[in-house]
Amino acid sequence: MRKNSIKNTRINGEVQRELSNIIRNEVKDPRIHPMTSVVAVEVAPDLKSAKAYVSVLGNEEEKENTLKGLKSAAGVIRSKLAHSINLRNTPEITFIMDSSIEYGVNMAKLIDEVNR
Questions:
Q1: Rounded to 10 degrees, what is the CA torsion of 38, 42, 44, 48?
Q2: CATH code of the domain in which 86 resides
Q3: In a domain, 58, yes or no
Q4: Residue 110, in any domain of the structure
Q5: What order do you get walking across the sheet with 36-43 strand by strand?
Q6: pTM (two decimals)
Q7: Residue 78: in which H helix or E strand, if any?
Q8: Which sign does the torsion angle of CA 105, 56, 10, 7 carry?
Q9: pLDDT tens digits, residue range 6-65?
């Protein structure tokens, strides 16, 4: 399976949707901030690993705590993902902090200030 195939794109979307649901509803780690969203997921073509890009609406300490909480709960999240998605292999998840949403909000504020 090629990296940008239609099948891989569908798997990425489905894993992203399920990861969002699992983090929001089933993981009870107090370090994970309630305003955490899964921005994108890249599953390797062999389905052995996945990179999950997460965004947190909060300060730097909350972002670090959320990333630590997600990394410590990665095994539980992977097992819940295996029950909800029927794949040949359940990918090993690596969580990566993504600040693109925060960057976009800051740029929108700057543009609004310039327009005034």
A1: 0
A2: 3.30.300.20
A3: yes
A4: yes
A5: 36-43, 49-56, 92-97
A6: 0.84
A7: helix 74-84
A8: positive
A9: 888 999 999 999 999 999 999 988 999 998 999 999 999 888 999 999 998 888 899 999
